Amino acid sequence: MPVTARIARTITALTISASTSSSAPAARRVARSLPAVRPYSTKPSGTSKPGSNHPSPLGFAALAILAFGTFAFVAQKRHTDPEKHTREKRIPHPNPLIPPRSQEPQMGLLGKFSRKKKQEPGANEPHNAIASAPAEPKQAEAQEQHAEAQEQHAVNEATGASAEPAFDPKKVTVVFVLGGPGAGKGTQCERLVRDYGFVHLSAGDLLRAEQQREGSQYGAMIADYIKEGKIVPMEVTVALLQNAIGEALAKQGATAAGHSVPDEHKDKWVDGKGRFLVDGFPRKMDQAIKFDETVCPSRFVLFLHCTEAVMLERLLERGKTSGRADDNVESIKKRFQTFVDTSMPVVEHYRQQDRVVEVDSIASVDDVYAQIKKAMDETFAKLGN
After folding, report:
1. 46-55, 133-142, 283-292: range with lowest mean pLDDT
2. DSSP track, 58-115
3. How far apart (Å, rounded) are the C-alpha atoms in residues 69 and 66?
4. Among residues of the chain, what percentage have pLDDT more than 70?
5. Is 363 annotated as a binding residue?
6. Which of 208, 177, 184 shows the shortest CA–CA distance to 282?
7. Is 87 part of any known ligand binding site?
8. Which of 377, 346, 178, 134 is nearest to 277 (CA)?
9. Is 185 annotated as a binding residue?
10. Has 287 been labeled as part of a binding site?
């Protein structure tokens, strides 16, 4: 019997067996009644003549067509079977607004394939602006915060909503000292206190003191933020700075930490006057604008520029004796990134207003301070202070 005839008989038998209720027994009976079908061999059937016995491409193609046709037929029969719900236990769909599969438009296998081919990817999917939007770099995010803070500042001025600063800028001089962690802000501020009669207020020191103060409602929160290298909420830092400035003015330069102004500079602390170096603040644009509006407008920014490699070396050396929880490699790297992302836009903001005195702090302490002293003298002469 030719191979094609045997294949035709096999397809007919499988089709009959798939359409009957007792498909498995019927298929076995039909299979036993058929002669052996070997479409994979090209050796003449029923002879002992030697010949090739390797697989036949046509035979494999016929088997593939047979298998696909059988699968498609059985799938179609199962799909259109009205009694399939009696055999299958399906879990009801949780959304009642979506109809069950029995009420969906029915289509065969070829129909589903053609619909998927015509349908463009994501054509029926709702557009998710958040998921599809490209990730914004952190610098752009900081610039956006800067724009929002300036916009809020303009709105406050237009509506008169902004309150008067707590301290008169004609009497109180505030200088922001900014730089990356380990740039030498604290070291240089000590010398400025000695030579110019400043009171040095470190935002970090104030936060750590508040963290350790008994009964503080912000202590635990401040500890978590410092450990992760994050910025403490603006309201907390600004309130601590305002309290410290008010206390120093009331005591003519004395602070709760035990610091006092040298005697030769006492004349700068009479009649409500005072000079302040605010170290490590502002860290974000909203902090800068909030401080200028509610506490006291700053005169200028002293920015100490330094490379991360030098700062890391200094901080690790300091960590051997400082006892600070954030003087470790992991926290230091987080603080570096936070400074770049959030504080550098503040520096750029004041630089555009020509209110930045920038000094390279990579050199020795004495050389750096010589540069700072020269820049401070020139700036104070320009401001007439």
Report:
1. 133-142
2. HHHHHHHHHHHHHHHHHHHHHHH-TTHHHH--PPPPS-TTSPPGGGSPP--HHHHHHH
3. 5
4. 63
5. yes
6. 177
7. no
8. 178
9. yes
10. yes
Q: Which residues contact 137 (CB under 8 A, 6 or more apart)?
A: none
Q: Is 362 annotated as a binding residue?
A: no
187 in a labelled binding site: yes
Say if residue 231 carries a ligand binding annotation.
yes
Q: Say if residue 274 carries a ligand binding annotation.
A: no
Is position 281 annotated in a ligand binding site? Answer: yes
Is 212 annotated to bind ligand?
no
pTM exceeds 0.70 for this model: no
Distance of CA 361 to CAs 184, 314, 338, Å? 7, 12, 20
Question: Is 184 annotated as contributing to ligand binding?
Answer: yes
Q: Is 230 annotated as a binding residue?
A: yes
pLDDT tens-digit series, residues 299-348 = 999 999 998 888 988 888 888 877 777 778 888 888 888 888 888 999 99
Side chain identity at residue 164, one-letter code:
E
List, by residue range, all CATH 3.40.50.300 domains of the chain.
Answer: 168-383
Q: Round to whole Å and give the CA distance between 272 and 274.
A: 7
280 is in an annotated binding site: yes
168-383 carries CATH number 3.40.50.300 = yes
**Backbone φ, ψ for residue 176 (5° rounding):** -80, 135
258 is in an annotated binding site: no
